[in-house]
Amino acid sequence: MSLQGKTLFITGASRGIGLAIALRAAKDGANIAIAAKTAEPNPKLPGTIYTAAQEIEQAGGKALPLVCDIRFEEQVNDAVARCVAQFGGIDICVNNASAIQLTGTLATDMKRYDLMQQINARGTYLVSKTCIPHLRRAANPHVLMLSPPLDMNAKWFAGHTAYTMAKFGMSMCVLGMTAEFAADGIAFNALWPRTGIATAAIRNALAGDEGMRHCRTTEILSDAAWLIFNKNAREFTGQFLIDDTFLVANGVTDFDRYRADPTKDLMPDFFVPDWIPPPAGVSLKALGSV
Fold first, then answer.
1. 195 bridge partner residues
2. How far apart are CA 180 and CA 142, in angstroms?
3. pLDDT tens sequence across 181-240
């Protein structure tokens, strides 16, 4: 299995999960279009599209840094066109870009509500729509959303209805587009982490530096994404996957290597349905604890 010569269009790939997926593909010699907003360094957010491009090239891939705010159709059209002009097509689209604010209804101003809807739900729809004509010409086309299973339990809405609506909007794209484009052989799947992932979002928006220690690293998602992209697109589609459950099913047995700090219990993520418990032998407890 390899992604050598494949072209990936990844939103939000200047850092975090998007960059990790890009670097895993780059090890195979893939081409990566980095579609993200960050062109200038931000003291609170590590990385820009240009530093990401350097890392991708050093890992063995070819990189195309693209300043792109996925809220704007003309920017997405231009970024996709530049990717196709540079690499000759698109094999894989990764909808990773996301906005988060975990506030209740009365505490969520409409500007922030709009931002989450525009980036998460609308942005995913727009990027997918723009890439699909090119994916139709690919040999094994995949679209991946970093979004959760559609579990309509009220507990996932209470406390942050606006954010949940926006994230579930991404997952509804998987549900609808899987059926709509089945005849074209394009796979649409969703991937979601069981635990918190050590990214800037955890540090800045959720739990700070201490929270980072209770997370898994981004590599658990990049390893899972790599396996998804190597599946037969006509056969493996319409899946809502939890990272460790999917990896176990594909022969992965060592999950301790994904821990940011083995001495800490792992922090459960939102949106993991009760019907998908941790795989046998996979614990969220600190190593050595009972």
1. 268
2. 14
3. 999 999 999 999 999 999 877 766 666 777 889 999 999 999 999 999 999 999 999 999
Stretch 273-279: mean pLDDT: 95
Closest CA to 69 of 28, 32, 39, 105: 39
H/E segment holding residue 208: helix 208-212
- Answer for the pair 246, 224: CB distance below 8 angstroms, yes or no: yes
SS3 of 10-51? EECCCCHHHHHHHHHHHCCCCEEEEEECCCCCECCECCCHHH
Find out whether 19 and 13 touch, Cβ atoms under 8 Å.
yes
Place of tokens 């998460």: 120
SS3 string, 211-259, reads HHCCCECCHHHHHHHHHHHCCCCCCCCCCEEEHHHHHHHCCCCCCHHHE
Strands 142-145 and 187-192: parallel
C-alpha–C-alpha distance, residues 24 and 59, integer Å = 8
Q: How far is 128 from 146, CA to CA, in rounded Å?
A: 13
Phi and psi, residue 36, nearest 5°:
-155, 165
DSSP 182: G
Residues labelled catalytic:
163
Q: Is the Cα torsion angle 72, 185, 24, 59 positive or negative in sign?
A: negative
| CA 12/CA 95 separation, integer angstroms | 8
Taking Cα atoms as reference points, which of 231, 194, 197, 225 lies closest to residue 211?
A: 197
- Rounded (to 5) percent helix, strand, coil in the chain: 40, 15, 45
